[in-house]
Amino acid sequence: MDRPWWTRLFYQTLFVLTCMLEKSLGSGRPNSMTAAPQWKMREYPNPQDSTSICNRPHRESWICDPNGILSKQEVLELDDMVENLRQSTDCRCDRCVSGHGEKHGYIVSLALLNKMESESYNNPSSPQNAEILNEAQMWTKYLRMQSWKMGACGNDAVLLLSVKDKVIYLSTGEELCEILSDKRTKQLLSTSLDLLADQDFFLALSNILKNYEELLKLGPEKSFNVISFGITHDEALNAGLMLFGPLCILDIVVLAFCVMIFCNIYVRGFKSHDVCYKVDYKERRLYEGFKIFCFQPLGVLMLLFIVAAINFAAVIGTLWLFRTQKTVCGVDSGAGVTWT
User: Fold this and answer.
1) pLDDT of 248
2) Measured distance CA(293)–CA(77) in Å, rounded
3) Fold for domain 12-220?
């Protein structure tokens, strides 16, 4: 039995509308309401594994955008830029090799989201900029070092953009932070603050990636300031050896001298001036310079006090150095900025 013409027309119209709706949802900017309005750090997906959640179905990516901050075409363009950066830069580490045995360069992966969920804010409804930056640092450090692990030897970085938190943060690995200091990273991000304030996130991220690639190709800065730019583990070790090595030698010499004085005066019963004459110096004038420390016990105490003061100043100076520079290259290295 044939259906009435109006019934056929109704179903045909419904079919056409369904196809149009499916096509519109399958292209352009994804529907952000399907994803979580805010994310917990340990639940944020990996673009190499959770491609569908990251709005990169059927394709491993360097970008995760579960809330649809960018359109699919914009994410595709940024993904190509990241891949080009990986292929065009030269990593200094021997382990910068892909699964096919091909040498590659530095890697930067992007984490885009509506808002970070945090329990560390004093006032969650209105957190301070410093709290937001600390949270972004924890996020990028966790993603780079524990969750994503894109790099083989610290040749990776994670760039986080949280729209409602109004923050962008870049965390750098050990290989990268030797080229891109924290100060340099902050300057790089600050160049796109106006675009971020205008919510032109695609252009802002594009500019950051382009400038980022140029900085990597330029190499490390010629002037390297320890206080401003952080220190590597090797530099910290070298500084410790240079500082405390001579101090240890000085301490041993002074201790041996004081033990000799003590033994001769209080154990063997010599007078203080006899002790000095027992010391066999090649040249007499060298002995004259130490006479005050031999003739007077107070001189020995003065020597001990001076050496103790030098050691104390060295320890305080080292603690101040690490307190002033809160980041260690490859561990907490990175920087971020907020906008209004």
Assistant:
1) 75
2) 76
3) Diaminopimelate Epimerase; Chain A, domain 1 (3.10.310)
